[in-house]
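Q: What would this chain look like folded?
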Amino acid sequence: MNNVAHIPSYLSAEHLGPWETFLVQIDRVEPHLAPELRPLTPLLTRPMRALIVNVPIRLDNGEMAHFEGYRVQHNLARGPGKGGIRFHPSVTESVLKFLAFEQTFKNALTGLPMGGGKGGSNFNPKGKSANEVMRFCQSFMNELYRHIGADVDVPAGDIGVGGREIGYLFGQYRRLTGRHESGVLTGKGKGWGGAEVRTEATGYGAVFFAQEMLKRTGEDIDGRRAVVSGSGNVAIYAIEKVSQLGGTAVTASDSSGYVVDEQGIDVELLKQIKEVERGRISDYAERKPGARFVSGGSVWDVPAELAFPCATQNELDERGARALLDGGVRVVAEGANMPTTPEAVTLLQQSGILFGPGKAANSGGVATSALEMSQNAARDRWDFDHSEARLQAIMRDVHDASYEASERYGRPGDYVLGANSAGFVTVAQAMIEQGLV
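A: My prediction, written as C-alpha coordinates:
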Protein backbone atom coordinates (compact mmCIF):
# COMPACT_ATOMS: atom_id res chain seq x y z
CA MET A 1 0.00 0.00 0.00
CA ASN A 2 1.28 3.49 -0.87
CA ASN A 3 0.61 5.55 2.25
CA VAL A 4 0.94 8.95 0.57
CA ALA A 5 -1.75 8.05 -1.97
CA HIS A 6 -4.26 7.60 0.82
CA ILE A 7 -3.68 10.91 2.61
CA PRO A 8 -6.80 12.98 1.83
CA SER A 9 -6.34 16.50 0.51
CA TYR A 10 -8.44 17.92 3.36
CA LEU A 11 -5.84 17.00 5.98
CA SER A 12 -3.55 19.93 6.73
CA ALA A 13 0.14 19.45 7.41
CA GLU A 14 -0.11 19.53 11.20
CA HIS A 15 -2.32 16.44 11.11
CA LEU A 16 -0.14 14.23 8.93
CA GLY A 17 1.86 12.78 11.82
CA PRO A 18 -0.99 10.85 13.49
CA TRP A 19 -2.56 10.08 10.10
CA GLU A 20 0.65 8.59 8.75
CA THR A 21 1.08 6.69 12.01
CA PHE A 22 -2.29 5.04 11.45
CA LEU A 23 -1.45 4.14 7.84
CA VAL A 24 1.94 2.72 8.79
CA GLN A 25 0.25 0.51 11.41
CA ILE A 26 -2.35 -0.71 8.90
CA ASP A 27 0.39 -1.34 6.33
CA ARG A 28 2.03 -3.57 8.91
CA VAL A 29 -1.09 -5.64 9.53
CA GLU A 30 -2.53 -5.62 5.99
CA PRO A 31 -0.93 -8.94 4.97
CA HIS A 32 -2.72 -10.58 7.91
CA LEU A 33 -6.15 -9.08 7.18
CA ALA A 34 -8.97 -10.99 5.54
CA PRO A 35 -8.81 -10.17 1.79
CA GLU A 36 -12.17 -8.41 1.83
CA LEU A 37 -10.94 -5.91 4.46
CA ARG A 38 -7.82 -4.76 2.64
CA PRO A 39 -9.46 -2.37 0.14
CA LEU A 40 -11.29 -0.46 2.88
CA THR A 41 -8.38 1.74 4.00
CA PRO A 42 -8.84 4.40 1.27
CA LEU A 43 -12.62 4.30 1.81
CA LEU A 44 -12.18 4.97 5.52
CA THR A 45 -10.06 8.05 4.87
CA ARG A 46 -13.15 10.09 3.95
CA PRO A 47 -16.25 10.90 5.98
CA MET A 48 -19.67 9.59 5.08
CA ARG A 49 -21.04 13.13 5.13
CA ALA A 50 -20.11 16.61 6.31
CA LEU A 51 -22.50 19.46 7.14
CA ILE A 52 -21.38 23.10 6.74
CA VAL A 53 -23.69 25.91 7.85
CA ASN A 54 -23.67 29.64 8.51
CA VAL A 55 -24.53 30.54 12.10
CA PRO A 56 -25.66 34.18 12.48
CA ILE A 57 -26.23 35.87 15.84
CA ARG A 58 -26.89 39.38 17.10
CA LEU A 59 -24.33 40.53 19.67
CA ASP A 60 -25.24 42.43 22.83
CA ASN A 61 -24.15 45.69 21.22
CA GLY A 62 -26.68 45.21 18.42
CA GLU A 63 -24.17 44.24 15.75
CA MET A 64 -24.73 41.18 13.56
CA ALA A 65 -22.04 38.49 13.49
CA HIS A 66 -21.88 35.17 11.72
CA PHE A 67 -19.73 32.09 12.12
CA GLU A 68 -19.24 28.78 10.36
CA GLY A 69 -20.67 25.62 11.91
CA TYR A 70 -19.89 22.00 11.07
CA ARG A 71 -20.90 18.44 11.83
CA VAL A 72 -18.90 15.57 10.32
CA GLN A 73 -20.35 12.06 10.42
CA HIS A 74 -17.35 9.95 9.53
CA ASN A 75 -18.67 6.40 9.82
CA LEU A 76 -21.94 5.06 11.24
CA ALA A 77 -21.48 1.35 10.49
CA ARG A 78 -21.36 0.42 14.20
CA GLY A 79 -24.07 2.73 15.48
CA PRO A 80 -25.16 6.37 15.62
CA GLY A 81 -22.43 8.96 15.30
CA LYS A 82 -20.77 9.94 18.57
CA GLY A 83 -18.30 12.72 19.20
CA GLY A 84 -17.97 16.17 20.64
CA ILE A 85 -18.78 19.68 19.49
CA ARG A 86 -16.06 22.29 20.02
CA PHE A 87 -16.29 26.08 19.89
CA HIS A 88 -12.86 27.55 19.19
CA PRO A 89 -11.32 29.94 16.63
CA SER A 90 -9.08 27.11 15.34
CA VAL A 91 -12.03 24.99 14.20
CA THR A 92 -12.08 24.29 10.46
CA GLU A 93 -13.65 21.63 8.28
CA SER A 94 -10.22 20.01 7.88
CA VAL A 95 -9.62 19.75 11.62
CA LEU A 96 -13.04 18.26 12.30
CA LYS A 97 -12.78 15.70 9.51
CA PHE A 98 -9.57 14.43 11.00
CA LEU A 99 -10.96 14.37 14.54
CA ALA A 100 -14.08 12.53 13.33
CA PHE A 101 -11.82 9.94 11.71
CA GLU A 102 -9.95 9.43 15.00
CA GLN A 103 -13.24 9.29 16.91
CA THR A 104 -14.53 6.44 14.74
CA PHE A 105 -11.75 4.09 15.79
CA LYS A 106 -11.66 5.26 19.40
CA ASN A 107 -15.37 4.50 19.71
CA ALA A 108 -14.91 1.10 18.09
CA LEU A 109 -12.29 0.19 20.70
CA THR A 110 -14.81 0.58 23.53
CA GLY A 111 -16.87 -2.29 22.10
CA LEU A 112 -20.00 -0.15 22.47
CA PRO A 113 -22.34 0.39 19.48
CA MET A 114 -21.19 3.82 18.30
CA GLY A 115 -20.08 5.35 15.04
CA GLY A 116 -17.76 8.35 14.86
CA GLY A 117 -18.45 12.04 14.37
CA LYS A 118 -17.24 15.49 15.36
CA GLY A 119 -18.58 19.00 15.08
CA GLY A 120 -18.14 22.59 16.09
CA SER A 121 -17.67 26.17 15.05
CA ASN A 122 -15.04 28.89 14.87
CA PHE A 123 -17.15 30.83 17.41
CA ASN A 124 -15.10 31.69 20.50
CA PRO A 125 -17.15 31.70 23.73
CA LYS A 126 -14.32 33.43 25.62
CA GLY A 127 -15.16 37.07 26.15
CA LYS A 128 -18.79 36.53 25.14
CA SER A 129 -21.68 37.16 27.51
CA ALA A 130 -23.92 34.30 28.65
CA ASN A 131 -26.69 35.71 26.45
CA GLU A 132 -24.41 35.80 23.40
CA VAL A 133 -23.37 32.19 24.02
CA MET A 134 -27.01 31.18 24.42
CA ARG A 135 -28.04 32.90 21.19
CA PHE A 136 -25.16 31.27 19.33
CA CYS A 137 -26.07 27.78 20.60
CA GLN A 138 -29.69 28.34 19.60
CA SER A 139 -28.74 29.58 16.12
CA PHE A 140 -26.38 26.62 15.61
CA MET A 141 -29.06 24.16 16.68
CA ASN A 142 -31.51 25.72 14.22
CA GLU A 143 -29.45 24.03 11.48
CA LEU A 144 -28.00 21.08 13.36
CA TYR A 145 -31.27 19.59 14.64
CA ARG A 146 -32.21 18.15 11.24
CA HIS A 147 -29.11 15.96 11.19
CA ILE A 148 -28.86 14.55 14.73
CA GLY A 149 -30.86 12.22 16.95
CA ALA A 150 -30.50 9.34 19.40
CA ASP A 151 -30.43 6.84 16.51
CA VAL A 152 -28.59 9.07 14.02
CA ASP A 153 -25.79 11.15 15.56
CA VAL A 154 -25.30 12.16 19.20
CA PRO A 155 -23.02 15.16 19.88
CA ALA A 156 -21.39 15.90 23.23
CA GLY A 157 -19.21 18.64 24.67
CA ASP A 158 -15.60 19.36 23.77
CA ILE A 159 -13.31 22.41 23.88
CA GLY A 160 -15.42 25.47 24.63
CA VAL A 161 -18.58 23.42 25.08
CA GLY A 162 -19.45 22.42 28.64
CA GLY A 163 -22.62 21.84 30.60
CA ARG A 164 -23.89 25.38 30.00
CA GLU A 165 -23.60 25.11 26.22
CA ILE A 166 -25.07 21.58 26.14
CA GLY A 167 -28.04 22.94 28.10
CA TYR A 168 -28.64 25.74 25.60
CA LEU A 169 -28.30 23.34 22.65
CA PHE A 170 -30.65 20.80 24.21
CA GLY A 171 -33.25 23.41 25.10
CA GLN A 172 -33.33 24.68 21.50
CA TYR A 173 -33.59 21.12 20.16
CA ARG A 174 -36.62 20.58 22.38
CA ARG A 175 -38.13 23.87 21.24
CA LEU A 176 -37.69 22.98 17.56
CA THR A 177 -38.84 19.35 17.71
CA GLY A 178 -41.37 19.41 20.53
CA ARG A 179 -39.74 16.29 21.98
CA HIS A 180 -37.76 15.62 25.16
CA GLU A 181 -35.37 13.26 23.39
CA SER A 182 -32.78 12.87 26.14
CA GLY A 183 -30.44 10.74 24.04
CA VAL A 184 -29.83 13.40 21.38
CA LEU A 185 -26.95 14.97 23.36
CA THR A 186 -24.67 13.74 26.13
CA GLY A 187 -22.93 15.66 28.88
CA LYS A 188 -26.27 16.92 30.13
CA GLY A 189 -27.05 18.12 33.64
CA LYS A 190 -27.77 15.33 36.11
CA GLY A 191 -31.25 16.71 36.77
CA TRP A 192 -32.34 16.28 33.13
CA GLY A 193 -30.75 13.13 31.79
CA GLY A 194 -27.07 13.43 32.60
CA ALA A 195 -24.99 10.55 33.95
CA GLU A 196 -22.84 10.03 37.01
CA VAL A 197 -19.06 9.80 36.41
CA ARG A 198 -19.25 11.65 33.07
CA THR A 199 -17.25 14.53 34.54
CA GLU A 200 -14.60 12.19 35.94
CA ALA A 201 -14.58 9.66 33.11
CA THR A 202 -11.69 10.75 30.87
CA GLY A 203 -9.24 11.31 33.72
CA TYR A 204 -10.30 8.19 35.61
CA GLY A 205 -10.22 6.17 32.39
CA ALA A 206 -6.64 7.16 31.54
CA VAL A 207 -5.49 6.00 34.97
CA PHE A 208 -7.48 2.77 34.70
CA PHE A 209 -5.77 2.12 31.36
CA ALA A 210 -2.33 2.74 32.88
CA GLN A 211 -3.23 0.38 35.70
CA GLU A 212 -4.09 -2.35 33.18
CA MET A 213 -0.78 -1.86 31.34
CA LEU A 214 1.08 -2.24 34.62
CA LYS A 215 -0.92 -5.31 35.63
CA ARG A 216 0.18 -7.00 32.41
CA THR A 217 3.75 -6.84 33.73
CA GLY A 218 2.85 -7.76 37.31
CA GLU A 219 3.08 -4.18 38.60
CA ASP A 220 0.66 -1.63 40.09
CA ILE A 221 0.06 2.10 40.57
CA ASP A 222 0.21 1.78 44.36
CA GLY A 223 3.28 3.52 45.75
CA ARG A 224 4.28 5.12 42.45
CA ARG A 225 4.92 8.77 41.74
CA ALA A 226 3.11 10.48 38.84
CA VAL A 227 3.41 13.69 36.85
CA VAL A 228 0.23 15.10 35.33
CA SER A 229 0.03 18.04 32.93
CA GLY A 230 -2.94 20.38 32.85
CA SER A 231 -5.36 21.47 35.54
CA GLY A 232 -8.66 21.13 33.73
CA ASN A 233 -11.27 18.45 33.97
CA VAL A 234 -9.13 15.56 32.67
CA ALA A 235 -6.06 16.40 34.74
CA ILE A 236 -7.98 16.95 37.98
CA TYR A 237 -9.65 13.57 37.87
CA ALA A 238 -6.52 11.75 36.71
CA ILE A 239 -4.80 13.17 39.80
CA GLU A 240 -7.73 12.11 41.97
CA LYS A 241 -7.75 8.53 40.68
CA VAL A 242 -3.96 8.14 41.00
CA SER A 243 -4.34 9.10 44.66
CA GLN A 244 -7.26 6.73 45.19
CA LEU A 245 -5.18 3.86 43.79
CA GLY A 246 -2.30 4.56 46.17
CA GLY A 247 -0.05 6.63 43.92
CA THR A 248 1.15 10.20 44.40
CA ALA A 249 0.53 12.77 41.67
CA VAL A 250 2.94 15.63 42.33
CA THR A 251 2.26 18.12 39.51
CA ALA A 252 -0.43 20.15 37.77
CA SER A 253 0.01 22.91 35.18
CA ASP A 254 -1.58 25.62 33.07
CA SER A 255 -0.30 27.99 30.38
CA SER A 256 1.64 30.04 32.96
CA GLY A 257 3.72 27.18 34.36
CA TYR A 258 3.38 24.27 36.76
CA VAL A 259 3.34 23.41 40.45
CA VAL A 260 5.18 20.65 42.25
CA ASP A 261 3.74 19.34 45.51
CA GLU A 262 5.89 16.54 46.90
CA GLN A 263 3.15 15.55 49.34
CA GLY A 264 0.76 14.96 46.47
CA ILE A 265 -1.57 17.46 44.81
CA ASP A 266 -4.49 18.41 47.05
CA VAL A 267 -7.36 17.69 44.65
CA GLU A 268 -9.99 19.60 46.60
CA LEU A 269 -7.83 22.74 46.69
CA LEU A 270 -7.10 22.35 42.98
CA LYS A 271 -10.82 22.03 42.22
CA GLN A 272 -11.58 25.13 44.27
CA ILE A 273 -8.96 27.20 42.45
CA LYS A 274 -9.57 25.99 38.90
CA GLU A 275 -13.24 25.02 38.81
CA VAL A 276 -14.79 27.47 41.27
CA GLU A 277 -12.50 30.51 41.30
CA ARG A 278 -11.18 30.11 37.72
CA GLY A 279 -7.75 31.01 39.10
CA ARG A 280 -4.20 30.27 37.96
CA ILE A 281 -2.08 27.31 38.96
CA SER A 282 0.30 29.69 40.77
CA ASP A 283 -2.51 30.31 43.27
CA TYR A 284 -2.14 26.70 44.38
CA ALA A 285 1.49 27.21 45.42
CA GLU A 286 0.57 30.39 47.31
CA ARG A 287 -2.05 28.54 49.37
CA LYS A 288 -0.47 25.11 49.86
CA PRO A 289 2.52 24.97 52.24
CA GLY A 290 5.47 23.15 50.67
CA ALA A 291 4.27 23.47 47.08
CA ARG A 292 6.35 25.44 44.59
CA PHE A 293 5.43 27.15 41.35
CA VAL A 294 7.69 27.03 38.27
CA SER A 295 6.99 29.74 35.72
CA GLY A 296 7.14 28.37 32.18
CA GLY A 297 9.40 25.35 31.96
CA SER A 298 8.28 21.80 31.37
CA VAL A 299 6.33 19.60 33.73
CA TRP A 300 8.13 16.62 32.18
CA ASP A 301 11.35 17.70 33.91
CA VAL A 302 9.90 16.43 37.22
CA PRO A 303 11.06 12.83 37.87
CA ALA A 304 8.28 10.23 38.10
CA GLU A 305 7.41 6.66 37.13
CA LEU A 306 4.01 7.54 35.65
CA ALA A 307 3.18 10.38 33.23
CA PHE A 308 -0.25 11.58 32.13
CA PRO A 309 -0.30 14.27 29.41
CA CYS A 310 -3.75 15.77 30.05
CA ALA A 311 -3.47 19.34 28.74
CA THR A 312 -3.34 19.83 24.98
CA GLN A 313 -2.07 18.50 21.66
CA ASN A 314 1.68 18.21 20.99
CA GLU A 315 2.59 19.12 24.57
CA LEU A 316 4.98 16.18 25.01
CA ASP A 317 7.72 16.48 22.41
CA GLU A 318 10.98 14.60 21.96
CA ARG A 319 12.80 16.80 24.46
CA GLY A 320 10.09 16.19 27.03
CA ALA A 321 10.20 12.46 26.37
CA ARG A 322 13.96 12.42 26.97
CA ALA A 323 13.42 14.27 30.25
CA LEU A 324 10.83 11.69 31.31
CA LEU A 325 13.22 8.86 30.47
CA ASP A 326 15.99 10.53 32.50
CA GLY A 327 13.49 10.82 35.38
CA GLY A 328 12.74 7.10 35.41
CA VAL A 329 9.33 7.04 33.72
CA ARG A 330 7.75 3.61 33.32
CA VAL A 331 4.30 4.40 31.88
CA VAL A 332 2.88 7.21 29.71
CA ALA A 333 -0.90 7.29 29.21
CA GLU A 334 -2.47 10.04 27.09
CA GLY A 335 -5.39 11.80 28.74
CA ALA A 336 -5.56 14.59 26.15
CA ASN A 337 -6.12 14.17 22.42
CA MET A 338 -2.82 13.61 20.60
CA PRO A 339 -0.63 15.29 23.26
CA THR A 340 2.51 13.36 22.27
CA THR A 341 4.35 14.16 19.05
CA PRO A 342 5.18 11.25 16.69
CA GLU A 343 8.90 11.68 17.42
CA ALA A 344 8.27 11.42 21.16
CA VAL A 345 6.07 8.35 20.71
CA THR A 346 8.83 6.64 18.73
CA LEU A 347 11.44 7.46 21.36
CA LEU A 348 9.28 6.21 24.23
CA GLN A 349 8.41 2.97 22.47
CA GLN A 350 12.01 2.30 21.44
CA SER A 351 12.99 2.80 25.09
CA GLY A 352 10.58 0.09 26.24
CA ILE A 353 8.13 2.45 27.94
CA LEU A 354 4.51 1.34 28.29
CA PHE A 355 2.75 3.89 26.09
CA GLY A 356 -1.05 4.21 26.05
CA PRO A 357 -2.20 6.22 23.00
CA GLY A 358 -5.16 8.56 23.40
CA LYS A 359 -7.28 6.49 21.03
CA ALA A 360 -7.33 3.88 23.79
CA ALA A 361 -6.28 5.57 27.03
CA ASN A 362 -8.66 8.55 26.91
CA SER A 363 -11.68 6.67 25.56
CA GLY A 364 -13.32 6.69 28.99
CA GLY A 365 -15.12 9.96 28.24
CA VAL A 366 -16.92 8.73 25.15
CA ALA A 367 -17.55 5.36 26.79
CA THR A 368 -19.39 7.06 29.65
CA SER A 369 -21.30 9.15 27.12
CA ALA A 370 -22.52 5.87 25.65
CA LEU A 371 -23.57 4.78 29.14
CA GLU A 372 -25.52 8.04 29.42
CA MET A 373 -27.27 7.14 26.15
CA SER A 374 -28.14 3.72 27.58
CA GLN A 375 -29.67 5.24 30.69
CA ASN A 376 -31.63 7.75 28.60
CA ALA A 377 -33.01 4.98 26.36
CA ALA A 378 -34.14 2.97 29.38
CA ARG A 379 -35.41 6.00 31.33
CA ASP A 380 -33.03 4.83 34.05
CA ARG A 381 -30.38 6.34 36.30
CA TRP A 382 -27.33 4.53 37.70
CA ASP A 383 -25.53 5.51 40.89
CA PHE A 384 -21.89 6.62 40.98
CA ASP A 385 -20.40 3.30 42.08
CA HIS A 386 -22.22 1.30 39.41
CA SER A 387 -21.24 3.82 36.71
CA GLU A 388 -17.59 3.81 37.78
CA ALA A 389 -17.52 0.02 37.80
CA ARG A 390 -18.86 0.00 34.24
CA LEU A 391 -16.21 2.53 33.20
CA GLN A 392 -13.42 0.46 34.72
CA ALA A 393 -14.68 -2.69 32.98
CA ILE A 394 -14.81 -0.87 29.63
CA MET A 395 -11.25 0.44 30.03
CA ARG A 396 -10.12 -3.10 30.83
CA ASP A 397 -11.77 -4.27 27.60
CA VAL A 398 -10.15 -1.45 25.62
CA HIS A 399 -6.76 -2.42 27.03
CA ASP A 400 -7.25 -6.11 26.32
CA ALA A 401 -8.45 -5.51 22.76
CA SER A 402 -5.41 -3.31 22.08
CA TYR A 403 -2.93 -5.71 23.66
CA GLU A 404 -4.37 -8.80 21.99
CA ALA A 405 -4.23 -7.08 18.59
CA SER A 406 -0.59 -6.11 19.18
CA GLU A 407 0.16 -9.77 19.92
CA ARG A 408 -1.77 -10.93 16.86
CA TYR A 409 0.28 -8.68 14.58
CA GLY A 410 3.64 -9.57 16.03
CA ARG A 411 4.46 -6.67 18.37
CA PRO A 412 3.24 -7.54 21.90
CA GLY A 413 2.83 -4.43 24.03
CA ASP A 414 2.80 -1.98 21.09
CA TYR A 415 -0.45 -0.32 22.09
CA VAL A 416 -0.33 2.13 19.17
CA LEU A 417 -0.32 -0.73 16.68
CA GLY A 418 -2.85 -2.64 18.76
CA ALA A 419 -5.34 0.22 19.14
CA ASN A 420 -5.13 1.27 15.49
CA SER A 421 -5.48 -2.23 14.10
CA ALA A 422 -8.20 -3.39 16.53
CA GLY A 423 -10.27 -0.27 15.82
CA PHE A 424 -9.80 -0.59 12.06
CA VAL A 425 -10.75 -4.26 11.91
CA THR A 426 -13.86 -3.72 14.07
CA VAL A 427 -15.16 -0.92 11.82
CA ALA A 428 -14.17 -2.63 8.56
CA GLN A 429 -15.90 -5.87 9.51
CA ALA A 430 -19.11 -4.02 10.36
CA MET A 431 -19.03 -2.28 6.98
CA ILE A 432 -18.49 -5.52 5.05
CA GLU A 433 -21.15 -7.45 6.97
CA GLN A 434 -23.75 -4.75 6.17
CA GLY A 435 -23.01 -4.63 2.46
CA LEU A 436 -20.24 -2.01 2.43
CA VAL A 437 -22.04 0.79 4.25
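The longest strand covers residues 64-75.
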